[in-house]
Amino acid sequence: MSDTAQSLAGKRIASLLDENSFVEIGGSVTARNTDFNMQEKETPADGVITGYGVIDGNLVYVYSQDASVLGGSIGEMHAKKIAGIYDMAMKMGAPVIGLVDCAGLRLQEATDALNAFGEIYLKQAMASGVIPQITAVFGTCGGGMTIGSALTDFTFMEDSKAKLFVNSPNALDNNRVDKCDTAAAKFQSEEAGTVDFTGSEEDIFGQIRQLVCMLPSNNEDDASYEECTDDLNRVCPDLANASGDTSILLSNISDDNIFVEVKASYAKEMVTGFIKLNGMTVGAVANRTEVYDAEGNKTAEYDAVLTTKGARKAAKFVKFCDAFEIPVLTLTNVKGFKADMHSERSIASAVAELTYAFANATVPKVNVVIGSAFGSAYTVMNSKALGADMTYAWGNAQIGMMDAREAARIMYPDADAALLNEKAAEYASAQESAMAAARRGYVDTLIEAEDTRKYVIGAFEMLFTKREDRPSKKHGTV
């Protein structure tokens, strides 16, 4: 192994992988550029350690940038080593994990470095949807390296020292770092939504290991199944009480309460993440109206509406699940779309992305209506019309065009209060109840909230061999 194996970059790899499992590739590579007296500088491993190892027995390829070598800057050979790791990972069908600590492109190598960096982008684009790609930012990730991070499926970020930016905070008009640190983990996870997980270095290693064990190694050979020791028919008492905070609901119905939430700090009104059902990884998308902390205190409350950020968050997640043959479960509780001037600028295109993602996905899709399901917002949340294979509804769910009283006001604008109440009750009975939807075939089965786990497990078992063709085309344009 190269001398850099004892550096911080090497120690990060050792902390991530199973003990003594890492095998270095290209440890003797150094920079070959001689411009600007580069021959006088030592560049062991050209500032990046590359190789392979295992996480709980799962093969992964990894690169870790060494900030002690020219700041971890990306030179020609540095980039070619990363591209080489991608080539091997694609051949073997295994994830790539990048541990980033990089000062940017190496100025001394100019266009050689720039061209090689472009080759990394190409490898990432070709690997997208074929193997999982994970980035963890521990130091600086700026400029072009940020684009590389965004090309991967999941991004982790150390929450105290790491920096992630295209343009540094001080380079933004009317901004400075002490006013708004746009490079910080808090901004990138909560406002930009480019970061999925944050925490200390130790936290991040544990989070990556947990995520890798939830995901298939590639889009063909699925190793994301394990033996289930939890009761498949386990009743989840008081599950209805968790309908507001669906992250808690998902944890309750999952095998051994395993739930790995993705982008937990971004667009909190939409929950996305992975659960286990009968040992199988399932992607979950759920509307959320409340957030509770570990002590059971309510920390936030949201309207039951689709937002631009929430729709895009969910759409990207569904596309990932479909690419890797991960079944999708949705928990629906939505009354409409967020209505304000800011939303009107982008909500139509964002919801169109979500609509396309659900409609285009060919994996098993199950929907459970746990609250209100009104109008077009319900339709785009994996409804039966959009292609859900099985649709369940809790007995007290409401499914229809809109709230019954609002519908009555529109249909009978001149009616008095008594008539409005009468017509609202009539509308609710005929058009808004879960039973009314079930009678029309839009809901397959009405279920008790506490029985949700066993019903969705049964549905996904039935759908395990699902095959569905789509019209022949190069790709969609949404």
Describe the protein in words.
Pfam families: Carboxyl_trans. GO terms for molecular function: propionyl-CoA carboxylase activity. This is Acetyl-CoA carboxylase carboxyltransferase component. This protein is an alpha/beta fold and 478 residues long. It folds into two domains: 211 residues, Alpha-Beta Complex (2-enoyl-CoA Hydratase, Chain A, domain 1), CATH 3.90.226; 236 residues, 2-enoyl-CoA Hydratase, Chain A, domain 1 (Alpha-Beta Complex). Helices cover 34% and strands 21% of the residues. The strands form five sheets. Strands 10, 11, 12, 16, 18, 19, 20 and 21 form an eight-stranded mixed sheet that branches. It has a seven-stranded mixed sheet with strand order 1-2-3-4-5-7-9, sandwiched between helices. The longest helix has 18 residues. The protein is elongated and about 85 Å long. The protein starts with 7 loop residues before the first helix and ends in a 16-residue tail after the last helix. 50% of the residues are buried. The model has no long low-confidence stretch (mean pLDDT 91).
